[in-house]
Input
Amino acid sequence: MGFLDALDSLGNSLGICYTDNERKRDEYDELYEFLKEQKDKMDKKLSELKTQKSGYLNNCDTLLSSKKKLADTIPAWAFEAKRKEKDKELKLLLKHFTDLVDDVESAKNHAKLKWEEYKQAVKAEKAE
Output
């Protein structure tokens, strides 16, 4: 018998019932709230990254299309050689993080469904 089972037995003997369904309901509620907070943080960070990427791309376009000699600003040949490679890496990273946000959203939705399932189970127990 685990600690929680012993605690439940003690509570039940004292007339304080906390069933397994109630515990699972509360655990899924906590999980849902945690995942919701994490997703909100991830969405905010991802939005910031996308804004920064957009600014970076706009600056690159401005730099490469400017009337100034590129040699007066930066050694463009060194920059341009790696830029496409780094842009591709950045795109893959953003896709990876976007997929992670989708996974967290999916887990959050699953936690809510399980919470609702156990909420109904608790109502059914109380009705008996």
Q: What stands out?
A: The chain has four helices and no strands. Residues 3-127 form one domain. The mean pLDDT is 82. Residues 76-127 form the longest helix (52 residues).
